[in-house]
Design goal:
The structure is a homohexamer of 311-residue chains. Chain A has ten helices and seven strands. By secondary structure, the first copy, chain A, is of the alpha+beta class. Chain A folds into two domains: 94 residues, Beta Barrel (OB fold (Dihydrolipoamide Acetyltransferase, E2P)), CATH 2.40.50; 175 residues, Hypothetical protein af1432. In chain A, the strands form two sheets. A five-stranded mixed beta barrel of chain A has the order 1-2-3-5-4. In chain A, strands 6-7 form a two-stranded antiparallel ribbon. In chain A, α2 runs antiparallel to α6, α5 packs antiparallel against α6 and α9 packs parallel to α10. The longest helix of chain A is centred in the C-terminal third of the chain and has 24 residues. The two termini of chain A are 33 Å apart. The mean pLDDT of chain A is 92. Chains in contact: A-B, A-C, A-E, A-F, B-C, B-D, B-F, C-D, C-E, D-E, D-F, E-F. The interface between B and F is small, with 11 and 7 residues.
Amino acid sequence: MKIKEIHEEGKVSVKALITKCDRGRTNKNTPYLSLTLEDRTGVLDAKFWNLTDEMVAMYHVGMVVEAQGEIIFHKNAAQLRLRKLTEDKDADLFDYVREAPMTKAEMKAEVDSMLDAMKDPVIRDVTREVIQASEEKFYTYPAATRNHHNFVGGLAYHTICMARLAKAVKALYPWLDEDLLCAGILLHDLGKVEELSSPMLAEYTSEGNLLGHISIAAAMIDRVALALDLERDERVVLLKHMVLSHHGKMEYGSPVLPMIPEAEVLTLLDNLDSRMVMMKQSIDATQPGTFGPRMFALDNRMIYHRKEEER
Amino acid sequence: MKIKEIHEEGKVSVKALITKCDRGRTNKNTPYLSLTLEDRTGVLDAKFWNLTDEMVAMYHVGMVVEAQGEIIFHKNAAQLRLRKLTEDKDADLFDYVREAPMTKAEMKAEVDSMLDAMKDPVIRDVTREVIQASEEKFYTYPAATRNHHNFVGGLAYHTICMARLAKAVKALYPWLDEDLLCAGILLHDLGKVEELSSPMLAEYTSEGNLLGHISIAAAMIDRVALALDLERDERVVLLKHMVLSHHGKMEYGSPVLPMIPEAEVLTLLDNLDSRMVMMKQSIDATQPGTFGPRMFALDNRMIYHRKEEER
Amino acid sequence: MKIKEIHEEGKVSVKALITKCDRGRTNKNTPYLSLTLEDRTGVLDAKFWNLTDEMVAMYHVGMVVEAQGEIIFHKNAAQLRLRKLTEDKDADLFDYVREAPMTKAEMKAEVDSMLDAMKDPVIRDVTREVIQASEEKFYTYPAATRNHHNFVGGLAYHTICMARLAKAVKALYPWLDEDLLCAGILLHDLGKVEELSSPMLAEYTSEGNLLGHISIAAAMIDRVALALDLERDERVVLLKHMVLSHHGKMEYGSPVLPMIPEAEVLTLLDNLDSRMVMMKQSIDATQPGTFGPRMFALDNRMIYHRKEEER
Amino acid sequence: MKIKEIHEEGKVSVKALITKCDRGRTNKNTPYLSLTLEDRTGVLDAKFWNLTDEMVAMYHVGMVVEAQGEIIFHKNAAQLRLRKLTEDKDADLFDYVREAPMTKAEMKAEVDSMLDAMKDPVIRDVTREVIQASEEKFYTYPAATRNHHNFVGGLAYHTICMARLAKAVKALYPWLDEDLLCAGILLHDLGKVEELSSPMLAEYTSEGNLLGHISIAAAMIDRVALALDLERDERVVLLKHMVLSHHGKMEYGSPVLPMIPEAEVLTLLDNLDSRMVMMKQSIDATQPGTFGPRMFALDNRMIYHRKEEER
Amino acid sequence: MKIKEIHEEGKVSVKALITKCDRGRTNKNTPYLSLTLEDRTGVLDAKFWNLTDEMVAMYHVGMVVEAQGEIIFHKNAAQLRLRKLTEDKDADLFDYVREAPMTKAEMKAEVDSMLDAMKDPVIRDVTREVIQASEEKFYTYPAATRNHHNFVGGLAYHTICMARLAKAVKALYPWLDEDLLCAGILLHDLGKVEELSSPMLAEYTSEGNLLGHISIAAAMIDRVALALDLERDERVVLLKHMVLSHHGKMEYGSPVLPMIPEAEVLTLLDNLDSRMVMMKQSIDATQPGTFGPRMFALDNRMIYHRKEEER
Amino acid sequence: MKIKEIHEEGKVSVKALITKCDRGRTNKNTPYLSLTLEDRTGVLDAKFWNLTDEMVAMYHVGMVVEAQGEIIFHKNAAQLRLRKLTEDKDADLFDYVREAPMTKAEMKAEVDSMLDAMKDPVIRDVTREVIQASEEKFYTYPAATRNHHNFVGGLAYHTICMARLAKAVKALYPWLDEDLLCAGILLHDLGKVEELSSPMLAEYTSEGNLLGHISIAAAMIDRVALALDLERDERVVLLKHMVLSHHGKMEYGSPVLPMIPEAEVLTLLDNLDSRMVMMKQSIDATQPGTFGPRMFALDNRMIYHRKEEER
């Protein structure tokens, strides 16, 4: 059974990946596990009660399991009371993780065609080199550990969505430098391949916490520009400026504010794509005619799922 | 001579509109005038020294004049020292004001085609009625008294630019309600036809200061919906919500925050269009390779005009 | 037994209204209910353990019940461990809700006498019409869902208290327009009759969340003024201004700030009455010589209940 | 001629007090004086051109002068171009300063009757002693150097206005401690007698800048309580708390926030009285139907002077 | 066994002080205790299940106990499941509390030598008198109830550390007044002897909450200066200024900002010493190569414990 | 005559450097110059009236001149009315600029001895290489364009002062890594050699505005580490972290907050040294017993110059 097929209480068996695995003990000192299970179709909370210390030690994050038990509904959300939990050692973890709606090949083709379309050789060469140096990670890492685009390929997919919007912006304001705008979009979050630990089950690395993906990406550009003997070219300075300023405000971690229009477009499109995804996720999890939970990443707003009958 | 043709010091004669007219007296108690002159091509500061009280009383804002004198450059900006200033009573004030790059007819055609394309009858009818009730003003008023789109037709032109961007956003997120999004954009700033005093030389009205264009536009929608017996329809509530929330933050004067994705798109596109225009204005007034002045409406940022040779 | 009569541990039987009803399951998967019970004299937390799914489904918010069980004290607060819980279908819910210290008739008489005392016919007529259009709700709705005046009639009672204070303010500053001040007070929170769902057990409506009571009340005034052909009268604009600005700061949801003295008085008296009630509630629930809990609605302050012996 | 009688351009002679006296030199290196003149009826700007260094040295703040010259209107405000300026050594400076609308004797009588009405002997004795220790200054000092109550007796008058409002508040919330509330009001700004330099022409003292009137007043209470052997009495602690917390927010200089209802009433009535006075001043200086200048002390608001005909 | 010697699960017996003692009841209505135990070497959480009401009533904060039970690890932290808990009535509570790394005698000697070294008689005499008036408490009270220096003698120890740093600052900026700087440091937190309740198990007093340690310390200086007839001496005003301004920002509770360099040094050294201690505590409780928990008192930062091998 | 020797009005002749040179025209359209003159002893404002366009074009920033004219005092500050202004083409500009109180050789010796004392080879080698790559600029550039250390050698001198304070901090907290702390201090502001334009008469470069000295310095470290094959070494990451976090708050331009104690010490000592210098400058320019002007870089504080007689 797939997770998204679960709609009612009763016995189930699902094959899924453990993405969270917390140990606990009841008041009576009996060990138990509090788990999050994921497959490509969704996410499920599970509890495994009345274990021994030996059993508790058998399970960990990243393990693919056959999970059997009973679904109950607790505060309108499904929860699995586990009866049996067996590792499937032959399973391929990649079959159980959520992924971008485009394949890696599709995303690479779209990015390559953007690079090929650039007319400015300096911008094109620097951007291409920086992406190539992290290519494998660029197409598999998520764009965040939670909130939005937190799936395999999320980083490249988020980038591509922004680049598509940028074309419409360029059409309205033809005086914008399309090569610079597109390059800035392609590189703006690339530092996340060092800030985060892995394509799946990503956590922040120590380097990621200490430096931040903004400074990491600026260094990636600097290294390539130095190797190409372009570190004094103004276009390279502007590319670094776009990456450094893309959080839009100093209190969000940008050491400088956007001072060229292309940098301003970048920060607004970044907000637009990430917020559309978060709002859609909230609406999909909410009944029509009601509001979802307050979301910290949306300034604590509740999102309204409008009534169906009136659309 | 047109204002934009002024490039060097020396004698000139220009025909222009007085848009600012401040009276003063020198230390020696002699009256003088400090003026702003505009024609369709630009803006020029002027000083008229050594006047009498009678002469000072002859000039006022909104007068078209033949201005003769000498151009000097003061802090890198041209200034006209007036020798003679004659009213041209036959001139049509409208020949001297800056206007949107589209004609009123072109703008009306584009708005009408948007309305015709709406599939939802409630949204279409309410939006059409609200615009019709202020049609003359909608196509002639500016979008602001300064900063951006402060010219005849600026309100409709700003609205149309946002609507064009909205089409690209809809293409990427097809689950958005295009009718609602387009209607929200068309109505979001319509309250400015009451908040401001006139198409040209606009000032804030008392009602504009006391209520604000956000509440004024919400009332306009309410009245039409009441007349159409639609005031309880959820689509009308959502339209009002989009108008009320379009400043994006409470401290910017929105009494509620955007709670539906269409409202979030509205506020981001509003920022995008207004900031592109302000940044372009700054760049056009700045030498390549230098930064423009700090701009209050852009969080006190200076905008960089990049070097020409490298584009 | 009345709730306020409960002072010690032991068996009790109370008749009360269910105002909160959360379902849960223990670690052992047994269903239980976590309830809030209210009668006119107070509020009581209750737990009903060891239920079946059928029993859990029998109870809901708004039901009047006969509750039997045992009182225990948990963190200095009484809690009822239920043994038996029976619906009383004949009971009138209104007998069990908390109410304003004035009757509806008394409040209506006081409001009517204020209206009769107004000398300005425009202000009087508009105010009277707006109140009449929501009269039933105005005298029964609460002023909030929690924090202060969250009881039947709270909205009108809060309004009347503010109006009484306004008389003293007018006496000290005789140049204030008493009619305008009184009208602004009477109308300032009237939008709550749409923002909230009901006199008792009130929740926020969708329209309430999307528009806010401030914009709702402004629309109420606008509709009446339109019907009376007074929508351009400055006194109507000022009334709307008072309602729109009464939260005092933009970040609290007012789209404009108070720009006339009567509006400033309104916002200060609103703060005064609501804070007095919240502080009194905190003091009544706190031992002399100690501080109450931090209160979010009071900027996270703790309120001090001073020592008895020294008064 | 009195200052308030000046309505048109032309020659005048006024007897007034110099309250500001700045020296300058024109571009041509000629000394001049820029003065502010005040009498009991108003304030007047004046310029004295073409002086010698000897003449410039003759005039200073606090001098009563006979001023002769010509009134001109500069930016809608009257300005006096001086021709002759003679000191009147026999004049009594006190005849030329603005004063509270109550006499010192009236104010003292009202304060004394408040003290006599106090039932709590600790509060009464401490308050009486603290006021007596600064009595002369309490009835003559202003409440501020500008903005509001910046006239002789302003401190006592502001205090008395607040105390009158407090009676109405007590009537509505009878559980408040009237003695404590009244005592807190009487003492809250008393530190200004050390923070400011004099009843007229007041400036901040060094001690005033370094300690602030809040801490100065707390020390005044502490000294009296110590002398009366009451420094451990809770009522004394509460009185100090009211003084310390009366600015209402830490960022306005209160080291603690109001934690008793009496302290909250104090801070709200302080705001009410000072804002009413500032708003009235703005309205009196503004034409009906227009807005006054932005006022820093009112969060940068403009105040609206409503149209006359509609009142 | 000492608390810091506990490294693994299994049976233990420790002698310790109860510093937190919360009563609870399980779902089954059985009483239990949730305790914090401390000895000089560390802190340990403990649970005592399945008690009777009589047993629960036997234990309270401040009792020294012999605690027997079993250590388990819950979320990587040791927890003691109690089997037996016996009061040791002969134990001296002081043998079980954490203390400063200097003895009281050592601290007093260092403070006295600082006082003796002061050349300015006014500063020296006032400072000495103020400290003597609270001497016993100054050397035993903590500097805070948690976060940093929350141990016996913490107040004096924190003060001494700051004074040592001040010597280096004076060496670099010889124009600073060393006596004033040292005196300000010695007195800046002295108000904590009234703000907190006791050397051990300290809580905020009512007076502490209502006045704050800043105002309390200012009053202490004022009383001594008055007794020495020095209350008008500028050095006394500057000392009070240093105490009042030492939180560095109004929103942190300082009614005035530092306006002399010595006050600025004081606030920066206060931050330096308190943050070093908090960061060291976090690092000591964190594994190398990982980050500690977010700390509210450090602006919500996580502190990094760098990898061992690379030092 | 040296600038600091000017104490009274009268004729003077000074040899000095032009550091500001603004052109203007009087109301009568006559050109004039408004100049700032500096020599090693101080700064002097000057006006040169009644010029021709040819004369105005002769002078510019960076020129050494013989200036003759008359000193007058305007608002208590000396101003030079120029009569004659002659360029001295043989003068060495460096003889007229203000400099650090240590020679370049002394500063280099102190920095080299710090580097030699480092025990950690990775930290030592990276730090030494980064400084060597900008050595000439490091010892000549200022630390800022105004406010503090805005003189030749200011950057190195500010760095050395901080390093001296760091030794005292290390003495008190011996668990700090002295090599890391010292290296972070040496490198923290090094990006200013690219952010600013020159040792004297420095302005912000375009790259400086677009990237900021924080990101520039991080790139400098990155390049050296890459060349030494140390870019993955944790010590290099920590050095970059210290540079990135040294402004202490995100809103001051640090993309990450200090997460190791050495980074916290760095930001506090940076504040300490810069504020001591700004406060001393204010005191030196203020009369005893008075307050200096409000200083933007000190949170708008006025600094008090205490009375002399009492020290």
